[in-house]
Design a protein that fits this description.
The protein is of the alpha+beta class. It contains 17 helices and 16 strands. The strands form 3 sheets. Strands 11, 12, 13, 14, 15 and 16 form a 6-stranded mixed sheet that branches. Strands 1-5-4-3-2 form a 5-stranded mixed sheet, sandwiched between helices. Strands 7-6-10-9-8 form a 5-stranded antiparallel sheet, sandwiched between helices. Strand 9 (about 220-230) and strand 10 (about 235-240) form a beta hairpin. Helix 13 (about 435-450) crosses helix 17, helix 14 crosses helix 15 and helix 14 (about 455-465) crosses helix 17. The longest helix has about 40 residues, at about 250-290.
Length: about 525
């Protein structure tokens, strides 16, 4: 409890006696320190909240200086003035001019008996302040232990704010995500009541993106806030709201609450990041073709997917110049997947979502959630696939749908709605056309070069004629059985069956891209796929 001047005056061992300015006992606030001075104007060396002890030596010859001294101390925020009796003026009371001025400005004026040295008063104040600081530190340490207990026991953000409200009952508390949505709050006395949470977010984060602490006034309330950062990236906004600014010990307790919020968010982020890295690895294994079907199935199972069940892939992209980092984008996407397994990862600068069950309506929710954060997003959606062996195809489809040219704005784009020309342009602009050709046709092209066969030309004719073997064989001037043999050979070499509907899109894209490459390089033979 802070030391008030009234408490000091009631200390019988000092024998202090109030002689003027009694009204200031209720309005001047706690005693912060004691200062001794005989200067006519000591205010340049004061901070406010002090008791000034003086014998009046500097003003003994002038009533005007005496009045000016009292006025100056009152304006500077001093708590009171102690006058050393019978030292200079030979009077048990202070000069009448000082008494009158103290009553006028409401500054408590008391006398210090001749037999009581000023240092006794200073020791009394210093001792009380030291005890108060110790109690504050002890309280902060106790709060710290309680916060750590909440963090290590897996409690929620709400539990931290409940603790903060018990420690600081005169304030309301709220935690917002970086996009202004409430994560937790505690306001038993309605301090936050009239202030909308968007206004709180703006007060703390809007004008202070690089500041550690901030203070603002809204609706007659004082908002003390902090941006909560995890690994240098802003994750949330913490705000404490009251009718007055927090005192030093209250701010110290607030810092403990902020530390708890930071640790809890860091813990949650660590869990999410560990899971995302597992999904990242699954995407990498699928796209690069470095894993067989069994390895893909095992990796998929480790992130909670059923390798044998149907799935879709969504590719999420926001504007490259947006303020949303890829980590925050993953968080928003995960939060949009209410009640579903959050299988979210990153590949080549975009966010991918592996969706089971395949018919779950999530793409629209992701777009809406990002729009709530003020960001326009494009979500590409693949076809429904069965088995992890087709994961790479689903990833390419989702990306192809997302990168479709000619569609402005945001929204959901389905791979079934693709225009082939715009799709190919988007893939080439991204620079992944070569990787698609290599991934789908690479082994077959290598076989043609080494063995002098025409498997790629056969594939082009087969798809050019709508997957009809008869017309394709006539176009190539070969027997129908020869064409079927070549298709089976392409399946054995490349691992994709051209007669299976699951691989039609892959072959069509790869052959079109290969054709465009050959034309660009002025190669005489170019495969044509309509």
């Amino acid at each position: 409890m802070a030391l008030l001047l009234d408490d000091l005056l009631s200390e019988r061992s000092l024998g202090l006696r109030l002689i003027a300015g009694a009204d200031g006992l209720r309005t001047r606030g706690p005693v912060c320190w004691v200062h001794c001075s005989e200067l006519p104007d000591p205010t340049p060396w004061l901070e406010g909240g002090e008791i000034l002890l003086t014998t009046g030596l500097g003003v003994k010859d002038s009533e005007e200086l005496q009045r000016r001294l009292i006025r100056g101390l009152a304006q500077h925020g001093c708590t009171g003035v102690g006058f050393g009796a019978d030292v200079i003026l030979g009077n048990a009371n202070a000069p009448q001019a000082m008494v009158e001025e103290a009553d006028c400005v409401g500054l408590p004026l008391f006398t210090v008996p001749y037999e009581v040295p000023f240092i006794a008063v200073m020791k009394m104040v210093s001792h009380h302040i030291s005890k108060e600081h110790y109690r504050t530190l002890q309280s902060a340490l106790d709060t710290h232990r309680k916060v750590m207990s909440l963090v290590t026991s897996g409690q929620s953000l709400q539990a931290v704010l409940d603790l903060a409200a018990r420690q600081l009952p005169h304030f309301g508390f709220i935690v917002l995500d970086y996009y202004g949505q409430i994560l937790a709050g505690k306001d038993p006395l309605g301090r936050i009541g009239p202030i909308h949470h968007n206004c709180l977010w703006e007060a703390v984060a809007g004008g202070h993106p690089h500041a550690s602490n901030c203070a603002a006034h809204r609706e007659g309330r004082v908002i003390s806030g902090r941006l909560v950062r995890v690994e240098r990236q802003i994750e949330a906004v913490f705000a404490m709201v009251g009718h007055r600014p927090p005192e030093e010990h209250e701010r110290l307790l607030m810092e403990q609450s902020i530390a708890g919020v930071t640790l809890m968010m860091g813990r949650e982020l660590s869990v999410r990041e560990m899971r995302r890295r597992q999904v990242d690895q699954l995407l990498k294994l699928a796209v690069t073709g470095r894993a067989n079907q069994q390895m893909l199935a095992e990796q998929a199972a480790s992130v909670g997917l059923n390798p044998a069940a149907a799935f879709r892939v969504l590719c999420v992209a926001v504007a490259r110049n947006s303020s949303l980092g890829i980590r925050n984008c993953c968080t928003v996407v995960e939060d949009a997947m209410k009640g579903l397994n959050r299988v979210v990862g990153r590949w080549d600068g975009d966010v991918y979502l592996l969706l089971q069950p395949a018919d779950a309506v999530v793409a629209e929710s992701v777009v809406d959630e990002l729009a709530r954060c003020g960001l326009a997003a494009v979500v590409g959606r693949s076809r429904e696939h069965m088995g992890m062996e087709s994961l790479a195809s689903a990833i390419r489809e989702a990306y192809a749908a997302m990168s479709r040219t000619g569609d402005g704005g945001s929204g959901v784009r389905n791979v079934e709605d693709l225009d082939v020309t715009s799709l190919l342009t988007g893939l080439e602009d991204r620079g992944i056309g070569d990787s698609i050709v290599e991934g789908v046709l690479g082994p077959v092209l290598a076989y043609d070069r080494n063995e002098g066969t025409n498997l790629v030309e056969t594939l082009a004719a087969y798809f050019r004629h709508g997957c009809r073997a008869g017309p394709a064989a006539e176009d190539l001037c070969v027997h129908r059985h020869t064409l079927v043999y070549r298709l089976n050979r392409a399946r054995e070499i490349g691992g994709r069956d051209p007669k299976s509907g699951a691989h039609i899109l892959e072959y069509t894209l790869a052959l079109k891209l290969y054709d465009r490459q050959r034309v660009a390089e002025h190669v005489p033979f170019a495969v044509e796929v309509r």
